[in-house]
Amino acid sequence: MSVKETASNWEPKILVFACNWCTYAGADLAGLSRLQYPPNIRILRVPCSGRVNPQFVLRAFQRGVDGVLVAGCHPGDCHYVTGNYFTRRRYLLMQRLLEYVGLDPERFQARWISGSEGPKFQEVVTKLTEDIKALGPNRKLRDAQ
Amino acid sequence: MKYAYYPGCSLSSTGIEYDLSTRAVAKALGIDLWEIPEWNCCGSSSAHLTDHLLALALPARNMAIAEAEGLDVVIPCAACYVRSKAVEVEVKESPEMQKTISEVIEREYTGKAKARALLDVFANDLDLNNVSALVNKPLQDLKVACYYGCLLVRPTKLGFDDAEDPQSMDKLMQALGGTPVQWSFKTECCGASRSLDKTQVGLTMIERILSAAKEAGADCIATACPLCMSNLDMRQGQAGAKSGQTYNLPVFYFTELMGLALGLNPQELGVNKHFVDTSAVVKKVVEGKGRRETA
Amino acid sequence: MKRVGVFVCHCGTNIAASVDCAQVAQNAQNFPGVAYATDYKYMCSEPGQELIKKAIKEHKLDRIVVASCSPRMHEPTFRRCIEGAGLNGYMLEMANIREHCSWVHPDDKERATQKSTELARMAVAKVLNNTPLEKSQIPVTKRALVIGGGIAGIQAAIDIANAGHKVDIVEKEPSIGGKMAQIDKTFPTLDCSACILTPKMVEAANHPNITLITYSEVEKVEGYVGNFDVTIRKKARSVDMNKCTGCGLCSEKCPSRVPSEFEMGMTTRKSIYTPFPQAIPNKPVIDRENCRYFKLGKCKVCERVCPAGAIDYTQEDELVTERYGAIVVATGFDLFDYSVYGEYGYGKYPDVITGLHFERLINASGPTMGKIKRPSDGKEPKNVVFIKCVGSRDEAKGKAYCSKTCCMYTAKHATLVREKIKDSNVYVFYMDVRTPGKGYEEFYTRTTDQYGAIYIRGRVSKIYQKGEKLIVKGADTLLGKQVEVEADMVVLATAMVAQPDAAKLAQMIGISYDQDNFYTEAHPKLAPVETHTAGVYLAGACQGPKDIPESVAQASGAAAKVCALLSKDEMATEPIISQVNEAICAGCGMCIPICPYKALELKTIQERVQGKTIERKVASVNSGLCQGCGACTVACRSSALNLKHFTNEQILAEVDALCL
Known about the structure:
Chain A is α/β, with parallel strands linked by helices.
């Protein structure tokens, strides 16, 4: 199914939920500025980080994704006024749940990246890729083959 | 009511009247003052200009002794008060500092024992109606310029009254039958120790306060700090000489006025130890009308 | 039968240099559901779009994936393109293989191509779950409401009215005019404020499309863009507006005097009064809280002397509900209460006044007929001290922000004192001098050079009374000295703050406000007159401190937005909104408080269950209000709520496709 498990050439697969108004724009800006980062992430566009249902995150881990990042507008700047406040709460609860369930909670991260923060997007993604790589492939929640 | 009592260095020397009158008034009001045994100097300005930890540790030791007895500390001198308050606030806000200080003084101080200014306790802890009831030599509408000085109200975090127009001493004087005057120099600097090392500067500050009190129509000035007293009383002549004025403005500790109003013996209050002659005011109060004999 | 077409763009060499586009297209051919896949140099160009349209027809494609640049760039382009080929515009997905791939992974063609393939696969999986969506239409009521009758509200109303739409201005004071009516002269031209304001007030009053609703307040706002139902409380004036001729006899004879709000308490007005001589409408109201008849049951002099019999003590507040298509909020500002500053006397010194008090003093129709006089003894001051930033730029006791107008009006006041009192000395204590407008710097320079006002850089630490004089103690930081001025009068430039009921009004209308209670614009740079609430616009100082030219500019801007809205009979709403599956909605209402636009509510539906007709509550989405964020969908416990075009199924399909 998901990740190729050859020890030497294993590369993590990271899913990024990016809000249309801020993070997606920030990622576009990183591209426009030709800032490079590792090719491990896959961006999934949502209108607001508040759209991200924790069940999507679970599904991603079930399907073998090694890391998930939810990113949206800075608190107070949400295009839809309050969406990111819900993201923040859901993220905290989800982290607790993952911890309880026994999955390394560090595989699931949340960040605030605005549309003008191209370099920040590059930084966050680069660091995240390194961190997930250090954690190794996601075996715990992956569906059985 | 029982409090730990921290007289501080000045009250055994230049501020002796403050100590005498405080003890006498406390006794008359039924307040039990337990003098902190073997108290040490609070460090005042010298310590806090030298070293932050030293400046906190010195008053902390006194506070810790009181805390062990479960008592808050009442402090007449404004400088001792503000330094003791500073350490109370610091240990409450910084657990790290609290640990360091307790280690240094080899006693536990958590900030539970509060530093209280004497003026604060007399004006706010007592029911002033009860105090009025005990007055048998009312102040005869004596016009009192209440001078708070700077350290009782600033920094505002450590002060207990409004920094621009405090009222505690004013309402106390009113309860004693006096008339506090409206004036704008209640909290202006008296020059502090500048009268020693930069005398001209110090005298200028003293002069302004005395002039303002005089212009406001005051018969006397009430104060709550030994250094303010020393500047306004001891140096009144010098300040007046500069501009060729004699102010004839006796300066009292507010506790001396309280003592007079409560009918205590003026000698026991120390009013005869002042530089500027107080006899006229004392006579007015002691021989004044409307006095009641104590039961 | 779903047939996906995949089109991979080279974007010249922008993508092709780092991604093997032909390979991506080839890989795509094997994705489930893909009927056709190809690559091309410039997909967004005319031939590129033709290619797509041709392929749709030839291969009977019913949904398209374009792997190219960011959808934030060309989604509308390709939507229009496939609509041109007869498909619904929402049957399109884009895979961003440029900004998110080729441009950021230029040196690893193999992995960039792999990533592009996966992104394309995600897009295909999503589009397979797309459904055609239609924009819905809601009717637009061609009538606008302007809340606030100051210069901003008046200007907005005039502009909207001139465009041919009906406008109502609701103003809580008895007259329109706002703060500008209290100002004497305006910087930098020193035009008489009333002279430039009153023509506009008259224009608004006489305009056939404008209705003035004065002495009234907004009490409730319901509805949504195009259809706001607003309840207005018309307070009882106690005067019949149809009979009153504005002769003023009632005010003349009224025996009851109270401090005049318009004159900042420096003189009195009667209990039956018009706030100022040029008031519009120029008909009085009775201040029932002070009127002797209403307080004590006596007097009634006004009724007796009124030649038109217009006094009506029995009048009651009237509540009316009207429907509007758009609302402009222009409620203006208030001034900071400087009595928190003990340094300046806690408001006790009569000769320490605010800038607005000063305006009334120098105004020819003010309490001193335009002569600058000390409020305490009526004498003319010689030494006048101005202190700027009282309450502004003060995080300790006031507001952190700069009030924008004070530097200019203080320079104006300084100029006027020097002009009117020949031997006066004017001192201005300042931190900075901010002169950002046209002619402003030159005005300030004239104030110092020509008019001889002395500007001292430093703050004032204390003002106290010494006999008749006010001693102002401050610092001159440029000279490094303490400064003491024996002043006769001190004028404080107090901060502009939000109206005391600003938060309440904002909550009523459903717009956001910041920590200082100024209303929040949709975007600080690019949308300064819109709010996040569709159909509600902002104009003037209620949005933030500003001067008259800016308020007028904003008002016209808001009016333009309103006209755009009202120019249509119907407006289209974006179909990317939440929808409720009523079959599984339990009516718990958890979603309702989540929505920042109040777009969700419960409605009652009827169903037949086991042969009986029952009623139950389900959630209902207002398509006019829903902005499509999807926050409610996550809160829904039964997944009855889904966001169209970003449904749970669509997103999960993307996730699944990623991990193959």
